[in-house]
Design the sequence.
C-alpha cells in the first residue's frame, strides 16, 4: 500500500493534462500528416497511459516488483506483436511457386 | 505388505481432513489442502474420461480398415481426448493438486495469498468441465483440440461453441491459480526463506505461474473470437470474407506452446525434489536449475511458430522460430544434466517415486530430443502431421509429466493422507506403466517416420503390425494406471500411519504433521538452512519400514 | 515476524502475518491480474493491427463512419471518472467517509454516461445496418479499395473491442456498488482502504484501454480537412 498520499492538486493537474492531450489527439486527426498520424496518435495515447499509470495508479510510488510486472506485460505483448507481424511482413519476401518460371518443370540436377 | 486385515487405529489428532465434516465444509472450504483434494478428484475423473477416448481410438486402430467407429466419430474421439487431457488434466494436474497443497507448506505459510480465489478457481474449473462434458454428450466436437479455423469457426457441424466455452472458462481457473502462486511466493515466504533457499519445486511453480498468467489470456480471447465467428457468421478467420486462418494459429499457439511448458515445468519441479530425496544429495547446480526454469518460461514464448512451419507462414518467420526452438532445448538439457550429476555418488533408493522420476528423465530426454527433428524446418516438412509428432508429445507429456505427477503423488501421499501406500504394488505399477508406455508410443515414432498421418481413422495395411503393438501397449498402460487408483484408495484406510517425515526428506512441508493441521504449522517456521540439506538428515528408511511391515502404530 | 494477537486488527485475514503483508499482497495481486488483462486485450489489439495493415482503406473508411464527437465526449467522461475514482481513494486515505461515497457514486454516474453514449452509438449503427453478422448492409458509397467484407471486418473489431471494454466497465459497476455499500457502512478508514485502492487500479485500467481504443478506432481514418 502506498503510504504516500498524492495531493488533490496533482490529480486535478493530471486530469487537465489528459483532457488537453485528448483535445490534441482529436485535433491532429483532422490534419493530414500521412503515416505520422498513426504514430502521433499512439504516442499521445501512450503519454496519457503513462500519466494515468504513474499518478492515478500510483506506479510512481510503487515497488520495483510492481514496475517489473508491468514492464513484463508490455514486453510480452511486444513479443506477440513482433513475432506475429514478422510473419505478415515477410510473407512476400519469398517468391511463391506461382512466381517461379518454366524452369520448375526441369528435373533437379543430381549431385554426384 | 501388511497382512493385518484390521485397519490401523485412526489418528485421533485434529488435522485438515478431520477438522470438520460434511459436504459444505468441503465445498465451501478455503483451505488450500482441501481444495487440492477437490482438484485431485476432479482431474482424476477427467483423466479417465480422456483415457476412455484413447482406449476407443487404440481399439479402433487395431485394424487398417477401422471398423470400430465411423470416421466422423473417430474425429470426435481424438478431439475429446486432446481437449480433456490437455485442458482438464495436464494443465491443472501438478499445479492445482500438488502446487495448491504444497506451495504454502513449502514456504511456511498458513495458506495461499487469496484462499477464496483459490476455491473460485476450482469452481470455474468445474463449470468449464461441465460445458465440455455437455459438448461431448450432445454430439461431440471434431475439430481437433487445436480448433483450427475456418473449419471450427465456419464449417464444423459439431458442438464447437460449447467446447470452446468450456476451454475459455477453464482458462480462468488456470489464470487465478497462477496469480495466487505468484503473489504467495513473492509476499508470504517464512522468515529466512530467501529465494535461493526455496525448494526447486517452488521455482518450477513460480515459472509455471508466469506462463499461465501471460499466455492463457491470449487463447481465451482467441477462442471467444471463434465462438463469436460461429454465432454471428462473420469472417474473422474465414478466407472467403477476408480473414486469415493463420492468424488464428498464431494466437492459438502463442499460448499453446508455452502451455506445454505449463505441463512439463511442474513435473521438472517434482523430479528435482524426488531425485534429491532419493539420492540423499542436494541438487547439483541448484541455481542453474532455478534459472533454467525461468529461462524456459521466457523462451517458451518465442517458439510457437514451429507448429506452423507447413501452414503458409513466412519462411523467414519460420527460420527465426526454428533457431529459437533449438535454443529452448538448452535449459531443459541443463536440468537433465544437473539431475544426472545429482545421482552420481548419491545414496540411491528405488522406491516408487524414484522409479517414476528416473522414468521421467529417460523418457523426457527421448521426447525432447525428437523435438529437435521437428524444430528443423526441412525434417519437419516430412514429419509434421504424422505419428512422429504424436509420439514426440506423448513421450514428453505422458512419459514426462504424467510420470512426474505419479512421482509427486506417491512422494507426498504420506503428507497428504498421513498414510503409507504399499510400495511393492507401487513399484510394480510404475514398471508396468513404463513398459506399457514404451510399447504404446515407440512404434508411433516409426509409424510417423514411415509416413502414417495422425488424426486418420484408417491407414495402409503395411502399418498394421506397428499399430497392433501400439494398441497392445495401450491396453497394458490402461490397466497399469488403474493399479495406483486401487492401492492409493486402499491405503487411505489400511495404510500404515506415516508420521511427519517418512522419507527423512528436507523441506518445510516435512517438518509438520502428516496430515498437517489446517493452519499448516503450530508456529511460523524460521528457515536457517539451505535447501536440500541432506548432509544433516538421517538416511532413507529401509524398504521394510516403508512397506508397512512391523508395528502398525508408529 | 510476531503475530500481535493482543491487538489483532479487525480486518486482518487469518492467513496473513500482518496488515502490511495483506495490503501488499492485495495490490500486487491486482497488478498481476491487470497483467493478464493487458495480454487479453493486447491479443485483440494485435489482431486489429494485422487486419488494419491488410485492409487499410476499409479500416479507414469504417473509422470515418464512427461519430468522433460522441467518442471524444466519451473519452472525456471516462477520464473524468478516473479522476473521481482517484479522489475517492484520496478520501479513503484521509478518512472522509461521505466524500468517499460521493466520489464513488460520481464515478459510477460518469461510467453510466459513458455506457449510455455507447449504447446510443450501437443503436445508430444498427439503424444504419452496420452490425456485422446480424444486420450488415452498408448504404454508404464505398471508396475504391473498400469491399463490403473488409468493411464488415472493421466493424467486427469495433463492436468486439468496445463491447469487451463495456463488459469490463459493467463488472466495474458491480464492484463499485459493493464498495459504495461498504463505504456507507463505514468499513473503510485510513488504516484499511485496500479494496478501494485495488478497485481503483481496475477502473483506471479500463480507462487506459479506452485511451487506446479511441484513437485506433475513431481517429486514424483519414478525416482530413486540410
Sequence:
Amino acid at each position: 500500500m502506498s503510504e504516500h498520499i498524492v495531493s488533490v492538486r496533482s490529480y486535478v493537474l493530471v486530469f487537465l493534462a489528459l483532457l488537453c492531450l485528448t483535445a490534441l489527439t482529436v485535433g491532429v486527426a483532422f490534419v493530414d500528416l500521412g503515416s505520422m498520424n498513426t504514430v502521433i496518435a499512439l504516442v499521445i495515447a501512450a503519454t496519457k497511459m503513462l500519466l494515468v499509470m504513474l499518478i492515478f495508479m500510483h506506479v510512481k510510488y510503487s515497488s520495483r516488483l510492481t514496475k517489473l510486472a508491468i514492464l513484463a506485460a508490455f514486453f510480452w505483448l511486444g513479443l506477440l506483436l513482433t513475432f506475429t507481424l514478422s510473419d505478415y511482413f515477410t510473407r512476400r519476401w519469398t517468391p511463391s511457386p506461382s512466381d517461379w518460371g518454366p524452369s520448375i518443370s526441369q528435373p533437379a540436377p543430381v549431385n554426384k | 505388505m501388511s497382512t493385518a486385515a484390521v485397519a490401523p487405529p485412526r489418528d485421533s489428532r485434529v488435522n485438515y481432513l478431520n477438522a470438520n465434516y460434511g459436504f459444505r465444509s468441503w465445498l465451501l472450504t478455503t483451505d488450500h489442502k482441501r481444495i487440492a483434494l477437490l482438484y485431485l478428484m476432479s482431474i482424476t475423473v477427467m483423466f479417465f474420461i480422456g483415457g476412455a477416448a484413447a482406449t476407443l481410438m487404440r481399439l479402433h486402430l487395431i485394424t487398417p480398415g477401422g471398423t470400430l467407429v465411423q470416421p466422423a466419430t473417430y474425429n470426435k474421439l481424438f478431439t475429446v481426448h486432446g481437449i480433456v487431457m490437455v485442458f482438464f488434466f495436464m494443465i491443472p494436474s501438478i499445479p492445482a493438486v500438488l502446487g495448491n497443497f504444497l506451495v504454502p507448506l513449502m514456504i511456511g505459510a498458513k495458506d495461499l495469498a487469496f484462499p477464496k480465489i483459490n476455491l473460485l478457481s476450482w469452481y470455474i474449473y468445474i463449470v468449464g468441465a461441465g460445458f465440455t462434458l455437455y459438448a461431448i454428450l450432445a454430439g461431440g466436437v471434431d475439430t481437433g483440440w487445436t480448433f483450427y479455423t475456418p473449419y471450427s469457426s465456419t464449417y464444423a457441424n459439431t458442438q464447437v461453441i460449447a467446447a470452446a466455452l468450456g476451454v475459455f472458462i477453464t482458462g480462468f481457473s488456470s489464470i487465478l491459480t497462477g496469480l495466487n502462486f505468484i503473489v504467495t511466493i513473492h509476499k508470504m515466504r517464512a522468515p529466512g526463506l530467501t529465494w535461493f533457499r526455496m525448494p526447486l519445486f517452488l521455482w518450477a511453480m513460480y515459472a509455471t505461474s508466469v506462463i499461465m498468467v501471460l499466455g492463457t489470456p491470449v487463447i481465451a480471447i482467441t477462442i471467444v473470437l471463434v465462438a463469436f465467428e460461429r454465432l454471428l457468421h462473420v469472417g474473422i478467420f474465414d478466407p472467403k470474407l477476408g480473414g486469415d486462418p493463420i492468424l488464428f494459429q498464431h494466437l492459438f499457439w502463442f499460448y499453446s506452446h508455452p502451455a506445454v511448458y505449463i505441463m512439463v515445468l511442474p513435473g521438472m519441479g517434482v523430479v528435482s525434489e524426488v531425485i534429491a530425496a532419493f539420492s540423499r544429495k542436494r541438487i547439483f547446480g541448484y541455481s542453474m536449475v532455478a534459472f533454467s526454469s525461468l529461462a524456459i518460461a521466457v523462451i517458451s514464448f518465442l517458439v510457437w511458430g514451429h507448429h506452423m512451419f507447413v501452414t503458409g507462414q513466412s519462411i523467414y518467420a519460420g527460420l527465426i522460430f526454428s533457431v529459437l526452438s533449438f535454443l529452448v532445448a538448452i535449459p531443459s538439457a541443463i536440468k537433465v544434466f544437473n539431475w544426472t550429476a545429482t545421482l552420481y555418488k548419491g545414496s540411491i533408493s528405488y522406491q516408487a517415486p524414484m522409479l517414476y522420476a528416473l522414468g521421467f528423465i529417460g523418457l523426457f530426454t527421448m521426447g525432447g530430443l525428437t523435438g529437435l527433428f521437428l524444430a528443423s524446418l526441412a525434417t519437419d516438412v516430412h514429419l509434421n502431421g504424422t505419428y512422429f509428432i504424436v509420439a514426440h508429445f506423448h513421450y514428453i507429456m505422458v512419459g514426462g509429466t504424467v510420470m512426474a505427477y505419479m512421482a509427486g503423488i506417491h512422494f507426498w501421499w504420506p503428507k497428504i493422507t498421513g498414510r503409507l501406500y504399499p510400495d511393492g504394488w507401487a513399484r510394480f505399477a510404475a514398471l508396468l506403466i513404463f513398459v506399457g508406455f514404451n510399447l504404446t508410443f515407440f512404434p508411433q515414432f516409426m509409424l510417423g517416420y514411415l509416413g502414417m498421418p495422425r488424426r486418420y481413422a484408417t491407414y495402409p495395411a503395411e502399418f498394421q503390425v506397428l499399430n497392433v503393438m501400439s494398441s497392445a501397449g495401450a491396453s497394458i498402460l490402461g490397466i497399469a494406471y488403474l493399479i495406483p487408483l486401487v492401492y492409493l484408495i486402499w491405503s487411505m484406510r489400511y495404510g500404515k500411519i506415516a508420521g511427519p517425515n517418512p522419507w527423512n526428506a528436507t523441506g518445510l512441508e516435512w517438518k509438520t504433521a502428516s496430515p498437517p493441521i489446517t493452519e499448516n504449522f503450530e508456529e511460523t517456521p524460521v528457515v536457517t538452512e539451505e535447501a536440500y540439506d541432506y548432509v544433516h538428515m538421517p538416511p532413507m528408511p529401509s524398504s521394510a519400514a516403508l512397506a508397512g511391515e512391523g508395528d502398525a502404530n508408529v | 515476524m510476531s503475530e500481535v494477537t493482543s491487538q489483532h486488527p479487525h480486518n486482518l485475514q487469518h492467513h496473513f502475518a500482518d496488515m502490511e503483508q495483506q495490503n501488499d499482497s492485495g495490490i500486487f495481486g491486482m497488478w498481476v491480474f491487470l497483467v493478464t488483462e493487458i495480454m487479453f486485450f493486447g491479443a485483440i489489439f494485435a489482431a486489429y493491427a494485422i487486419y488494419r495493415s491488410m485492409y487499410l482503406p476499409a479500416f479507414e473508411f469504417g473509422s470515418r463512419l464512427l461519430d468522433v464527437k460522441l467518442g471524444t465526449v466519451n473519452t472525456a467522461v471516462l477520464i473524468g471518472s478516473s479522476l473521481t475514482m482517484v479522489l475517492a481513494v484520496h478520501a479513503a486515505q484521509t478518512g472522509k467517509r461521505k466524500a468517499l461515497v460521493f466520489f464513488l457514486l460520481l464515478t459510477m454516474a460518469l461510467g453510466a454516461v459513458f455506457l449510455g453514449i455507447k449504447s446510443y452509438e450501437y443503436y445508430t449503427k444498427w439503424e444504419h445496418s452496420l452490425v456485422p453478422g446480424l444486420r450488415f448492409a452498408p448504404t454508404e458509397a464505398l471508396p475504391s479499395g473498400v469491399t463490403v467484407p473488409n468493411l464488415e471486418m472493421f466493424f467486427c473489431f469495433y463492436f468486439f473491442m468496445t463491447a469487451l471494454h463495456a463488459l469490463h466497465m459493467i463488472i466495474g459497476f458491480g464492484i463499485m456498488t459493493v464498495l459504495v455499500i461498504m463505504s456507507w457502512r463505514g468499513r473503510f478508514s485510513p488504516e484499511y482502504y485496500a479494496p478501494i485502492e485495488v478497485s481503483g487500479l481496475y477502473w483506471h485500467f479500463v480507462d487506459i484501454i479506452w485511451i487506446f481504443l479511441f484513437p485506433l478506432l475513431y481517429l486514424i481514418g483519414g478525416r482530413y480537412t486540410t
Residues 64-90 of chain A form the longest helix (27 residues). Residues 8-61 of chain A form one domain. The mean pLDDT of chain A is 84. The CA atoms of residues 97 and 103 of chain A lie 11 Å apart.
